[in-house]
Amino acid sequence: MEYFIELLFSGLTRGSIYALIALGYTMVYGIIGLINFAHGEIYMIGAFTALVVSTALTIYGFPLLAVVVLTALAAAVWAASYGYTIERLAYRPLRSAPRLSPLISAIGMSIFLQNYVLLAQTSDFVPFPALVPEFAFMEPYAHIVGSSDMAILVVSALAMIILTCMIKYTRTGKAMRATAQDQKMALLVGINVDNVISITFITGSALAAIGGLLIASHIGQINFYIGFIAGIKAFTAAVLGGIGSIPGAVLGSFILGLTEAFATGYVSSDYEDVFAFSLLVLILIFKPAGLLGKATIEKV
After folding, report:
1. Residue 152 pLDDT more than 60?
2. Fold for domain 2-133+142-286?
3. Hey, is 143 helix, strand or coil?
């Protein structure tokens, strides 16, 4: 039973990280119908920013709590600035172009950011400091779930709750929902659609950066390629739950995380990805729009 609970928490931890990244994919797609394939690299840049900032603050003798808070803020802000810049340079000029053009631009931006970080840093794995201390009250359960796992679950849950409240109850959130429903009508009622789209990229990028910080601290190492793998998994989770649906992205992420954890624990780590993507194929065969997605009708 303990082994089952350990795998359960492992799956929830994975799912939480996937959810933080998948939310960026699904928010952007829901508003402008674009798959931002550079989003995984934003996650990776957030992790590297956290490494640089946390190392500098530690050298200057900042207390651990200050290091964690300031590192999270710096990573979120820096990643958000990348998300904003990418939207302005790579996607906005192509918004009225054929759908293939922004897709190619997104893939090109992903490759560019990978090689940019590769040249700026290194191709090797770089050690990342453990920013989450071992909590005393968690010691009796340390063999089942660690303090960093619990921190990931709590922070991810808080981030998702804040995002949900923002979208449901704030003017910006209402503008996002209106823009996602009908951009032209949103323009007619006075909504600045360009600003809404930029805010969407900024929000998704900040969430991805928090995910990058959490998982890097949990695993203890990073390299320039972590964004590609995590991005593909998070995109899979978003499609699994229903691309464009925020609850769907969260649900798909947890299903994917739990599937990987139990497949690794009870079968073999070699088949982790096989089970995950097989599940996706089955869902898309029987429910092409995803678990919580809505089928779209195109007029011809």
Report:
1. yes
2. ABC transporter involved in vitamin B12 uptake, BtuC (1.10.3470)
3. coil
